[in-house]
Amino acid sequence: MGKFFYQIFLRLYPLIASIISPFNPKAKKWIEGRKDIFIKIKNALQHDPGKKIWMHCSSLGEFEQGRPLLESLSKVYPDLKIVVSFFSPSGYEVQKNYAGANYVFYLPMDSKQHAQEWYDLINPSLVLFVKYEFWNYYLQESKKRNIPLLLISGIFRKSQPFFSWYGRFYREMLTCFTHFFIQDKNSAMLLQSIGLENFTICGDTRFDRVIQMKKNTVSLPGIEIFCEKAITLVAGSTWLEDDEELNHYINKKPEMRFIIAPHDVGEDRIKECLLLYKNSILYSEFVQNFYLPPDKNTLIIDNIGMLKRLYGYATISFVGGGFGGDGVHNVLEPAVYGRPVLFGPVYEKFPEATGLVETGAAFSIIDAIELEEQLNELLEDDALYQSACTQASAFVLSQAGATNHILGYLKENLRLMS
């Protein structure tokens, strides 16, 4: 039954993407990015017989998890070539020019033929899949060719099909992995429940990534001018549901500064933000002369790529996604700066968010009223605020080191340069 539904999915997904692509920019990029993909790969690699590491990521968040390991491997094995693939346009379009990779491609839709052709062209010496991206034919082909296959920062939940009564087909995918590097004990118990013992609990490589990012961050002069040492709330990766809870507070606090970085920076979404936040100005307008009109205190970020650095200017951060079904976005990016983090109620499936809440570094709110109460409490109670700041930094630092665990395994068990 599992294989039947998987095959249905493989057929329906491209069909639906094709149907909606004329009026859905993301679907259009998904379709267009895969046109003549094997010709593009062949042309790119035809004169490169060197050994390669292939890392596959679903999207941008998974790439950030795999990135610390790739960059460490590049230092240890400088002669190895790096190939990165993405399933989603939101990952590929942002990182298609990533300097740390020799090649960046869209991953063709899973099929036996595509997997065979991909491996023939890429010919990887090591395959890395990140977090929870599982494509049957690509995994099976790695096993068939006896190529080491690792899962990086994996996390498993009881609700996944691997652990269901109909999950035999999906469990067979997991037998393709040489080793699992997983985030927590619950994932370990789930793997053991289906007879898998080839795992190491080493945490999440994103902790290493955000620590590295903070060390390498550069100032944003325009943001410093905007903030003017005022109390500043940075709200990152927001959706409409987040903005509707935030704007009540923001619109009545002229003495504060607010920076809103929407998850989607398309024209319609930016217009939506400008309508919700009455005293706002676009970042692209502000940086033309760094002039902030007296009636403006809210900056709408209408580009991609600044958010990681923006969090460094926050007195308090808010992370979007927690009012939607998929849950809160990356809470580690703001937490690494040692500031309190707020988000909506949907966060339980993210261990890092749960950990921050349990230590008192983060606060989950259910609506605009609770948001205002929590912000007021943090800003009026200095002891509470300072404790949250201390706990945020301590929590991130305490979870570092996953990258070195994986790198140590590779050095000991795989002869990448032989």
Structural class: alpha/beta
CATH topology value of the largest domain: Rossmann fold
- Strand percentage lies at 15-25%
The DSSP helix count reads 20
Total strand count, please? 14
- Main sheet: strand order: 3-2-1-4-5-6-7
Largest sheet descriptor = 7 strands, parallel
Task: Please state the oligomeric state of the protein chains shown.
Answer: single chain
Radius of gyration: 22 Å
**First-residue to last-residue Cα separation:** 42 Å
Describe this protein with a few key phrases.
single chain; alpha/beta; Rossmann fold; seven-stranded parallel sheet
Question: Mind explaining what this structure looks like?
Answer:
By secondary structure, this protein is of the alpha/beta class. 48% of the residues lie in helices and 15% in strands. The protein is built from 20 helices and 14 strands. It has helices at residues 2-20, 25-32, 37-45, 60-76, 89-95, 112-122, 136-144, 168-174, 185-193, 205-215, 221-227, 240-250, 267-276, 283-289, 307-310, 332-335, 351-359, 368-380, 382-398, 402-413; strands spanning 52-57, 81-86, 103-106, 126-130, 149-154, 179-182, 199-201, 232-238, 257-262, 280-282, 298-300, 316-319, 341-343, 362-364. β1, α4 (60-76) and β2 (81-86) form a beta-alpha-beta unit. The protein is globular, with a radius of gyration of 22 Å. The two termini are 42 Å apart.
